[in-house]
Amino acid sequence: MGGIASILIVDDNPKYLADALPMYGYDIAVANDGIEALKLLSNDNKHFDLILLDVMMPNMDGWDTLKAIRNNKNLKYIPVIMITAVSEEQKVVSGLKIGADDYVVKPFILPNLLARIEAILRRCKWQAENSEAKKEISINKETNIDALTPKEKEVLALVAKGASNQEIADKLFVRDVTVKTHLNSIFKKLKVTNRTQAVLLAMQTNLIS
Fold this sequence. Notes:
alpha/beta, 9 helices, 209 residues, Rossmann fold
């Protein structure tokens, strides 16, 4: 598998999506009902970034499949987009309460579905990266939080706002090399290795808001 993401299509009539999604770079697998889907999801050799789950299916419908996914500690965080011909607001709300991440009503326009898929995958990627960055940060007794100078705190506050080294230099009326020196000092004192870790640690310790 070398696609941009791996998607499980759970639908008793999956041909349209199964043919279309690979054209946009997605790896896909297909299950024709909820029972088959849960078997695929329980396979340790399979990994799925997102599930497209039809509501009306034989053997096990989408609602029961979604409940089973959300009740499984190994599966409950996989994003799920429900796909159905039913558009009643009450059913949409019920699906979201059970744990659907989004809801698409048939007949749908493919670009609309693709945009929803991309939005959910982008959000999941950001959350994963943010979580990983936080894991890398360790606050211990050796972290010299109070040692930052007022100027270093000012630099860090600008970094937190997304300013580049040159923008910080222009703001503080210093040279770019001076900003780099401040950043190296900040990294050393906070025991971190990059700008993201420095900002997260500073926010955790209320150095910046």
